[in-house]
Amino acid sequence: MAADAPSRLAVLAGRGDLPLQVAAREADSFVVTFQGVDTDAHPDYEARFEKLGGLFKELHKQGVKRVCFAGGLRRPALNPLRFDATMMRLAPRLIAAMKGGDDHILRIVVEVFEDAGFTVVGAHEICPEILATEGLIAGEAPTEQALRDMDRAHAILTALSPVDVGQGCVVANGLCYGIETIQGTDAMLSFIAQNTLSRQGVLMKRAKVGQELRVDMPAIGPETLHGAHSAGLAGVVVQAGQVMIVDPAETCALAKELGLFIYGEAR
Predict the structure, then answer these.
(1) Which H or E run contains 203?
(2) Which positions ≥6 away from 186 have C-beta within 8 Å?
(3) Any idea what the Cα angle at residue 258 is, between residues 255 and 262, rounded to 5°?
(4) Rg (CA), the chain
(5) Smaller CB count within 10 Å for the chain: N or C?
(6) Mean pLDDT score, 51-69
């Protein structure tokens, strides 16, 4: 007997190419964009953060059973005057969660969607080939100094993990030049670019310990590499199996073109 076909997937689209990759994997994907979010995805439905009840109703109407958050989404500015009944009920829980770190609020978001009858799946479950592998992924092997900077970056992110701050940092010659906060990786790299490091130092991206990876797995892509190059870094280090490389072929080709390495760290 043939295996049952997977249930219909809704792609909740944010910024970048990842929503397009995920939606292309399943022909009947239902693509949802959010008002005010800049995305390249072509929506089947445009939702409002203040009207989750309307979104849930539409997803059920479309036969959706699985939802995948794909692409970058910043914390929305919510207008209580626009809340529907469902959002009014959820608001105290969500607003309280927004006072914490990203992982905390995203765990609550997952619970909200699961309580509404949906299964939340990660983009890496739909497109497993985007997961970073162990060892040298692109470019030339990191130098001894770069390896020492990796160790330092690993120690910094491990120390910060319990306080749910960020997924990335930049270290050069043992010094920390930047830590990713709510502004994101691109903003951090833009700041560091004001003091270009002349092809030294590394950007490390890794998951926080115990992070909810279905909705907030760290990711790098071409934009990350352009930022790392502008900042004068030597390469990008990612956690193997827990960081996504969006557009892997394009990203790896760009790394070689820019003279950067991409390295997958196993620990």
Answers:
(1) strand 202-205
(2) 223, 224, 227
(3) 30
(4) 19
(5) N
(6) 97
Q: Are residues 80 and 183 in the same domain?
A: no
How large is the average pLDDT for residues 30-34? 96
The DSSP line for 5-72 is PPPEEEEEE-BSSHHHHHHHHSTT-EEEEETT-------SEEE-TT-HHHHHHHHHHTTEEEEEEESB
Q: Is residue 230 part of a domain?
A: yes
Tell me, yes or no, whether 31 and 95 share the same domain.
yes
Q: pLDDT by residue (tens digit) across 93-137? A: 888 877 777 777 888 999 999 999 999 999 999 999 999 999 999
Pairing mode, if any, of strands 235-239 and 202-205?
parallel
Q: What is the CATH number of the domain that holds 228?
A: 3.40.140.80
Output the pTM of the full model.
0.87
Is the Cβ–Cβ distance between 176 and 165 less than 8 Å? no
